Amino acid sequence: MHIADGFLNPYTCILMYIIALIFFVWAWKGTKRTLSRSFLPLIAICSSIILIAQIVEFPVAGGASTWHILGGTLVSMILGPHATVISMTIVLLVQTLFGDGGISAFGANVFNMAVIGGLSFYIVKLLLRSSFSKKRFAASLFIATWISSVLTALATGIEIGFYPMVAPVGGIIVTVPTMLLLYIPSGLAEAAITVPSVLSLSRITPRTLHGLNLLRGKNHEEQ
To answer: Do 121 and 85 form a contact (C-beta atoms < 8 A)?
Structure first.
């Protein structure tokens, strides 16, 4: 899902940097408000796991982007929405420094993966409503993971499609279906992995799942 340099309109790059910065400030303030310093090692661990998981990737859309595991919804159940944005932004920064994703496209990549991934927490929350049965939670988690993958693919396809050099081959008419064709089925696969992973973690180490505790109305903020 990483967009390389040279595949985005300069105005799109600037706009996405601004949007990414706004969400990063929101995430930073939210993380400071809701998490204690004891969670810093967990943020580092999650960042490392996502970094390793995303090493395996394949080029798509003519090399303009890549396909790989996203992991945003899974991390949001562990860290909560705010810290997930921070964690995945750190991952994307490291990847960019090593040439995986362009510097000019960094804002777009942060929005597509870190922001959408972190906000998928609220999709789970919306689907759960006031009921927190195991079956409803599993279904909500599955749907949120899939929707997150589709939205990330959609955003990437739109951003690349507006690049003038892509216009002669069809623009968004080509780029959006290309991205969705890959991430609609792969989103189902990622959802199938995310659900049992979160359910297992909730049984083994429930106290470390800050996102899950937030859904249940608990908070780890230090008083």
So the answer is: no
> Across-strand partners of 65?
60
From first CA to last CA, the distance across the chain in angstroms is: 39
Q: Residue 59 belongs to what H/E stretch?
A: strand 58-60
Copy the structure tokens of residue 60.
């798509």
Q: Mean pLDDT over residues 68-77, rounded? A: 87
Confidence of residue 58 (pLDDT cuts 50, 70, 90): low
Give this prediction's pTM.
Answer: 0.86
DSSP character for 101? S
Note the pLDDT of residue 223.
30
Closest alpha carbon to 3 in 96, 119, 120: 96
Q: What are phi and psi of 66, to 5 degrees?
A: -135, 160
Distance, CA of 4 to chain centre: 17
For the segment 88-111, the average pLDDT, to the nearest whole number, is 91
Report all structural domains of the chain as residue ranges with CATH numbers, in order of start.
10-215 (1.10.1760.20)
Is residue 221 packed enough to be buried (19+ CB in 10 Å), middle (13-18) or exposed (0-12)? Answer: exposed
Q: How far apart are CA 4 and CA 66, in angstroms?
A: 9
Q: Closest by alpha carbon to 47, among 112, 3, 94, 81?
A: 94
- C-alpha 66/C-alpha 110 separation (Å) is 14
